[in-house]
Amino acid sequence: MKPQVLVLVPIYAPTLAELEHEFTVHRLWEARDANALLKEVSGNVRAVVTSGSSGIAAELIEALPKLEIIGCFGNPRGTVDLALTKRRGVVVTNTPDSITADVADLAMGLIVAVMRRIAEADRYVRAGRWLSGLLPPGSGLGGKTCGIIGLGAIGSGIAKRAEAFRMTVRYHGPRRKEGVGYAFDPDLERLARESDCLVVACPSTPQTRGLVNARILDALGADGYFVNIARGPIVDEQALIAALRERRIAGAGLDVFWDEPRVPAALFTMEQVVLAPHIGSTTREVREERGRKLLANLRAHFAGKPVPTPLT
Question: 31, 81, 99, 303: least buried by Cβ within 10 Å?
């Protein structure tokens, strides 16, 4: 009999198809009555598949007496109770992958899009407004300063791309990076003041929550642009909306939000804002890599072998 797997959220469709070929799969997110489905299958579920961002509630782990393995499509950060799974003897796996280039590409795309008004220009042409006159000019990138909050792997990738566009790079973080030639600003307000475009690329932690506030946005100024490809709560969203509405900053490119997938309606009508549905790592290549690793973990476990990528 095939092992029964409870899939909590939608994952990459080809991976889900392979799962359903090899296992008995229950799609919790599609159930009309999730509680009824759980009551029916909980006694036989041996594996759970979820995303790194969604994870699994501790109550659900406790409700699955035969649970042996949790396979995360992605990398959970605080979304799985590892103390509980260890106590229960449940294996937790992830899919370590290289999203650096893809996220950095998107960040650079948002910088270009918002500064050169690409999304706005697309709407302008589609609406037939070009017949009535020219779109006002955007801002060139060459010679401008790109300020990056967080010069980790992704921040460094953004810096290299910004340099290719002839931008000067400055950065802020908890400490100066050894061997880095970019100017370091220990004071975030100073970095914002010196930047033409301010990009958030740091992790979301209690220390970075609300890090970009009204004071930082005011320092960025009326000619400055803001881009966030990290996590929504790093910026005070209401302060950002107010700064955009009052034209205290020039525009924003946003891939992340406080309460995803719910995006503040105020942003929908702002022409100077480019919105994306958290697609930094959403490429076919990353999805395929994650799918291969997820399946490899499940196959190894049910074959009685060590899983290739356990979460430790």
Answer: 303
Does 311 map to a domain?
no
- pLDDT tens, position by position, 35-67: 999 999 999 999 999 998 899 999 999 999 999
Question: Residue 43, class by beta-carbon neighbours within 10 Å (0-12 exposed, 13-18 middle, 19+ buried)?
Answer: exposed
Considering its fold, how many domains does the chain have in total? 2
Considering only CA atoms, which of 103, 98, 10, 92 is closest in space to residue 51? 10
CATH number, residue 166: 3.40.50.720
Active-site residue, selected from the candidate residues 46, 117, 161, 231? 231
**Tens-place pLDDT, residues 157-196:** 999 999 999 999 999 999 999 999 999 999 999 999 999 9
pLDDT at position 248: 98
> Which residue in 77, 248, 278, 299 is the catalytic one?
278
Residue 309 domain flag: no
For 179, phi then psi, to 5°, come to: 75, 15
Same domain for 246 and 128: yes
Same-domain check for residues 140 and 265? yes
pTM flag (> 0.90):
no
Q: How many helices (H) does the chain have, and how many strands (E)?
A: 11, 12
Question: Residue 106 and residue 108: Cα distance in Å, rounded?
Answer: 5
Same domain? 79 vs 8: yes
231 is catalytic: yes
Residue 132 confidence (pLDDT) above 90: yes
